[in-house]
Write a structure and sequence with these properties.
Chain lengths: 222, 345
């Protein structure tokens, strides 16, 4: 149980897919102009990630090493299409506003990265928990980015007017440069927290060495 | 042995693919009806919004799109209690962040009855305000951006910042939607037979590029360009009190991956008096239609070099189209100067 909890927490800050592993950044920048889009994209990716990790972990002994990539892609693409169709049917507004980014979950590096580095080698329970942790780690970052961008760039949150009428929206935050700025500030805050969490603790050897920063990298230089 | 290994791997891959496809087929079957219903409901709601009094809509194929960048998805005649009320067209065309889909209604007398934005992928908070029912271009009357087109005549100018109010900080979106509405309105009124409401396209713009002329007439001898690939479609002569003061030409040439068409006016002393970029079918070339780009040519001498980067600024994001248009403007101006010098126009 404790081990599963460790796997889950790992994705939130310590190995956050966006701030530490730094994959799947393009969609995070593009959809976070409104909070609703951020939540939608986060939930969509979490669904695809958990389902793909579950299936691939289940079948991990039946997937020949040499053709594992095409098989991963088939599984990921199938779940993405399922989710795309479900969203078009039951959440048409969300589906419209996120446009091409939903089909592009297929090639989102987070899914491919976690499937390859984690669930193709780990038991089912760990894989599902890893998918949940990574998905929630991705989602909270999207929401954090979107809250700042929507509030300052449009004066609203989830579509409701928050700022007083005299507030003139800072369009800069809606545009890509503002997105990068907000992203970097959140990253600084998150990585500072990460360093405090890791301080005094010997870095535990994580199961997927491919995606972990060597500890003297980010932490020591600052 | 190696061959058997390959076949085995192929079969394994095939099994995974088949299982995936079967799964998808089930999901598709269970959702496709809902998706189709929703799209149909969206469409019907949009059609009723532009023709509130219509009792039904009949598909028609009479309305044709004027160019390849604007696609007409569907067209309907709006049936009223006493005969046809007009035509509603669902169309999409390029905008800043991807295609924008609209429904435009045109009544039998050539008036736009309403415009509804079905889909717009432009920047949220800026261009996306085109589809925002709470974004007013005129706060006093609560007129939305698409709402302002209701009641406009097909023969109106449809120029953003003149007779169309732009969305703040979203000029490209405003302009692309305006162009789309105008294209649909023209095609629909042609199909309705309200011809004659549309002005003769060349004369007003020709006088705009020859501001000093009081009358513009077709030239008795067409100007021709020596530059390969440039074809001059139309040559006009501007006169003031009977004396020739300049000439204008409409010309077209290949640009980046499409065609660009320009209208150039040149005075008798070889100065460019006006330029309009009429059309550009390059994939990202529409920004060069901005009047600010064409304005740069005014006052330049036809004989001097016109180059992007030295005396003409490219429109950012459309450098190659800007370059194509500049070369065409220069070729046309040179041809007109030669024609003016030759006399007998």
């Amino acid at each position: 149980m404790k081990r599963l909890f460790g796997v889950f927490v790992n994705g939130l800050i310590i190995e956050n897919p966006l701030f530490i592993i730094m994959i799947g950044l393009c969609s995070s920048m593009a959809v976070t102009t409104t909070v609703a889009n951020g939540i939608g994209m986060g939930v969509a990716l979490t669904f695809v990630l958990v389902m793909s990790e579950l299936i691939i972990s289940l079948f991990r002994n039946l997937i020949p090493e040499s053709i594992r990539m095409p098989i991963f892609l088939i599984v990921i693409a199938a779940f993405t299409t399922i989710m795309d169709l479900e969203m078009q049917a039951y959440f048409p507004v969300l589906s419209k506003s996120m446009g091409v980014f939903i089909p592009l979950v297929v090639v989102n590096c987070i899914v491919m990265g976690r499937v390859e580095a984690f669930s193709s080698k780990q038991p089912v329970a760990d894989s599902v928990v890893d998918g949940l942790g990574m998905g929630i780690g991705y989602t909270w970052v999207l929401i954090a980015l979107a809250v700042v961008r929507e509030l300052l760039g449009n004066g609203t949150l989830l579509g409701f007017q928050i700022m007083p009428a005299s507030f003139s929206p800072m369009i800069f935050f809606i545009l890509p440069p503002g997105g990068f700025l907000v992203f970097s500030l959140w990253m600084a805050a998150s990585n500072n927290l990460r360093r405090k969490l890791l301080a005094g603790k010997k870095p535990e050897p994580t199961q997927d060495s491919c995606c972990t920063l060597p500890e003297n990298g980010s932490a020591e230089k600052a | 042995m190696k061959r058997w290994q390959m076949i085995k791997l192929g079969l394994i891959l095939a099994v995974y693919t088949i299982v995936g496809c079967v799964g998808l087929a089930f999901v598709y079957n269970s959702t496709s009806k809902t998706i189709a219903q929703r799209q149909e409901a969206d469409l019907q709601a949009g059609l009723h919004e532009v023709f509130p009094t219509a009792t039904g809509f009949t598909p028609t194929d009479k309305v044709k799109s004027p160019n390849s960048t604007i696609v007409f998805d569907a067209a309907y005649t709006a049936d009223g209690p006493s005969g046809s009320l007009g035509i509603a067209v669902k169309a999409h065309g390029p905008s800043y962040g991807g295609p924008t889909t609209l429904i435009v209604g045109v009544s039998t007398d050539g008036t736009i009855t309403g415009v509804k934005v079905l889909e717009n992928k432009d920047t949220p908070g800026l261009g996306a305000n085109a589809a925002n029912p709470k974004y007013y271009v005129d706060k006093a009357t609560k007129t939305t951006f698409p709402g302002q087109f209701a009641g406009k005549k097909v023969s109106d100018a449809f120029i953003v910042k003149q007779d169309v109010t732009a969305i703040t900080s979203a000029t490209i979106t405003s302009r692309s939607i305006t162009n789309l509405v105008q294209a649909v309105a023209k095609a629909a009124s042609d199909a309705l037979g309200t011809a004659g409401s549309a002005p003769v396209p060349s004369s007003p713009s020709s006088s705009a590029v020859l501001p000093s002329a009081d009358t513009v007439r077709p030239s008795s001898r067409a100007a021709t360009s020596s530059v390969p690939g440039v074809s001059i479609l139309e040559t006009l002569v501007g006169t003031k009190a009977g004396t020739i003061v300049g000439a204008s030409g409409k010309a077209t040439a290949k640009s980046y991956d499409g065609d660009v068409t320009v209208l150039v006016g040149v005075s008798t002393d070889g100065t460019i008096t006006g330029v309009q970029i009429l059309e550009c079918t390059d994939s990202l070339g529409s920004p060069i239609l901005a009047p600010e780009f064409a304005q740069q040519f005014v006052g330049k001498k036809a004989g001097t070099p016109l180059e992007i980067g030295t005396n003409i600024d490219a429109v950012s994001g459309a450098t190659l189209s800007s370059r194509g248009a500049t070369a065409l403007v220069k070729a046309t101006a040179d041809a007109l100067v030669t024609a003016l010098a030759g006399g007998g126009l």
